[in-house]
Amino acid sequence: MIVKTQYVTFDQELKLRSGATLGPITLAYETYGELNADKSNAILVLHALSGDAHVAGRHAASDTKPGWWDEAVGPGKAFDTNKYFIICSNVIGGCKGSTGPATVNPKTGKPYGLSFPVITVADMVDAERLLIDHLGIDKLLTVTGGSLGGMRALQWAVSYPDRIRSAIVLAATARVSAQSIALNEVARQAIYADPNWKRGDYYDGERPNVGLALARMIGHISYLSETSMREKFGRLLQEREQYGYEFNTEFRVESYLKHQGLTFTKRFDANTFLYITKAIDYFDLSLGLSSLAEAFRNVTAKFMIVSYSSDWLYPAAESEEMVRALLQNGVDATYVEIKSDYGHDSFLLEVDRLGGLTNDFLARVQKPHPAPKHKK
After folding, report:
1. Catalytic option among 50, 222, 344, 345
2. Catalytic site residue 54?
3. Is residue 24 reached through a cis peptide bond, with omega within 30 degrees of 0 on the bond before it?
4. I want to staple 21 with a disulfide (CB 3.0 to 4.6 A). Which of 13, 81, 101, 312 is the partner?
5. What DSSP state is assigned to residue 73?
């Protein structure tokens, strides 16, 4: 499946939760499948921290790797492009085509850097709503995503309850914990400590790749589980048979993390990492309210919440809290905990089980409501 990234620019100011404004705004997005006549089959897929608009397929036949969720999006897959019109866009603050800190500020002619305003998950969703308006879609069949994508799915249901029929939330939370904030802060400190960062003003010189690679290594540990790391790496050595009693890379897990960090620097921007992790830290649907249940008081969408047994970044207990809050408001909410050893990354890897759940859930969402019975 060959796909092309598209771009749309909104020549307007978006009012952000911080009180600042941002505009004009460009969003990079891709679409898959066909929008039906009444525009009722549109699904918005929402990427996680390091994702982008390229969710599936290839940009060219020569591409060595497909999109980040190719196993889930396509003909006959969990999000079947024979049935549904799939949309995926890069978030504002991103670095893969949407307006972010690496974008040239039209007022200065230079990249925004740290002059880019701090954004929130709600701001990301507001920008995505502009895209859905641009596509002429009044109501999405569902919004879905894992991790940060799951947070945005929740925010869509809260911010725009009349614009979605359902939400599929994977490996997410309604309010980020102190532990998650701590991990994100340590990762950010790695970037701050890189002398090439220069308080975000590095676009005309060397990039802070050492700091960004270390930040990715820290984050990647939180995406795995102890079981998956033990089974994949154990205490095996890399390209040697005995300890070297030195500080070079010796263990396979060390080599793996270094590879992940280096690869990340080739496709991601350090400032974008700072902005998106900060948006994740700020995420708290219950902020200023008496309870999480109060946050869902106007929600009308059907929900499917999926957690994964070995996910210690956003553990099952946080998904269960969401389900209880939804049920307190009479929201139709289905909850599934999938047994998996893959940790937080399970939402990207346990695609077969998700496919069955998604097919059943969307069939129920699309089922016509019975006509009300008239009293005699």
Report:
1. 344
2. no
3. yes
4. 13
5. E
